[in-house]
Amino acid sequence: MHIKEIQRPRSAEPDARRLFAVWPSSVRQRPRQRPSPSIDVHDGDLLRALCQSAFGGASSACTHKTDVFVTSKFAPPPSIVLTAEGRPIAALQEANAMTALRSSQLEVLLEGEWHRFNATLDETALTLAPVDEGPGGDDWGTTEKRTVRVVKNEGSGLGISIKGGRDNNMPILISKIFKNMAADLTGQLFVGDAILAVNGESLVDASHDEAVRALKKAGRIVDLQVRYMRDIYMSKDSIFGRIQWDEDGIYQKDGAVRSIGLKLACVTRTSLEMEDIENRTFEIRSPSARYVLTFRGMNSVEADIWFENIHACADTLLTQALAQVNLMLGQNPQVRRMGWLAEQSVQHGVLVWKPVFAALTMNDLLFYDAVPLIKSEWANPKITRPLIATRVVQTTARTCPVISGLSDIISFTTRTGTQQGIRSHLFRVETHRELAAWVKFIVHCTYEACTETAQISAPCIWQNQQCELIFQLDKGISLVGQQTRQILWQYPFEVIRATGDDGQQFLWIDFGPPAGEQEMDLLGSPKPVVFILHSFLATKVYHLGLYA
Q: Residue limits of the PDZ domain (predicted)?
């Protein structure tokens, strides 16, 4: 195997494999079995203990404990669908239930206001069309007439702006309400209210100018007869103009229908930006992460089914996009999996979920703020986590089983050893299938990265001698003098009893009698070396087939 030193540009996140690595060549995935329970190893034969389980890990500040697991196929809980479009569907197949909801009505949040559309989903896009309702309407449209008394302050007006009129073929509509002015203080007037009369004077057939004059001469106490009619009379072009999306992902048909492309879109069951007590909303975020559309169903069950359909379409399109990305990149690097995750972070002292686009290659886990579209963007991830120094240490299914329901948080945690210490990420996914896929791919790619790397070395000081600590997948651990290139000691992985570090620069490895414990000064953070050691051990176990 040809080994060469990798020269990488400096970044905020040092790459542990900068120490020593090999370029990837052909790789092969092995089938995995069912997950096995975790174990803790304090002393004794580390490799034998590892054989009881599979890959994972957690490292304490001093004594390293190998918490090992393998995830394979997490079976998602069966979806329980009660109704579709108001009709019982208990006797229907799940596929038929989903098809029934591929065309129904949804509300979209635009500039702080909910607008209702006829929504239709196909394999590539979600299409929105205006709801055509007459004056009768239903509980989503028009309302009963209301009379609201407004008392103006001295020297002030009503505090509203209006639009429409006979000359515009529209009723007189309230288009704006000014905060803390007379109309706003009533709490009974809303943008979208049609003014039918002022102090008994009808404005049903009034022009815009006639309505303005009627409002100005109404006096200090004004009785307004209004009806809420926003969804019926608001300009279709005006509404569609508020739907913003990436240019290559949105198109309009026949001037009255807007289609939103789902390719590389981020689909989440709950809003990442607003609270949803009723659990009726879901979000679609554009590939550039610049635009977000929040949708609301009539109830949580309908929102669940809409989400399942849209998410499934986006997932299928993601498979196609992955092939296109690898074609563009020329398989260098080869992207094994990519998609949107939500990462937990702290903003202004509050825990929030922030969307990140993740890509998994055979060597690295890469993170971007948006979907990279060209080679130069792919070459500049925001964060790079080398797989040989990264472990999946926790999943929702292992520590806190998810109760059935797609709205529950499904997550996994990764830890990476870097020159600045351990870096952890908590990621949220939307379905159990996503959780299983991400964990499986990360674990498998880590095995492949270790197999292709085969050997890493790190400079160190041992008993006042400048040395190189070398990990070889097939031979174990050895220490070589830098000047003489003589092997000072060498042990197979099987004899390791325990490892530990001080979190600063010292690493201890206990090989048991007669060698005992060896202490090395790694001249920097020991965490990359510790994590790589654990990855090599797990890969060794995987190759031996010693997993449950």
A: 147-230
